[in-house]
Amino acid sequence: MHYRLNITSRALAAIFGGYAFAVASSFALVPILMLFFSLVKSDAVYLATMLSYIFYFAAIIFSFCRSSILLVCRDMTLACGVLYLVHLGASTL
After folding, report:
1. Cα distance between residue 38 and residue 54, in whole Å
2. What's the pLDDT tens digit per position in 28-65?
3. Is residue 42 helix, strand or coil?
4. Membrane spanning segments where (predicted)?
């Protein structure tokens, strides 16, 4: 039963944590793309949304590669927090 609980919790972390990570990366990439690549806002949003799929798939792979589910949750939370701070910092420029 412990094995099934481990796989279920990793799958939930991959689905919901990966989605949060993809959204946070999309939010963080928009002002960066506008600032450094001189894209208009609509193009930056489109490109950031396309790039967020890469972050989502990376989070899914990451959630099954770590040794502990607690480390997965901790690292995804920290990564989302950092991306949120990047979004706040870059959008004020």
Report:
1. 22
2. 999 999 999 999 999 999 999 999 999 999 999 999 99
3. helix
4. 12-38, 44-64
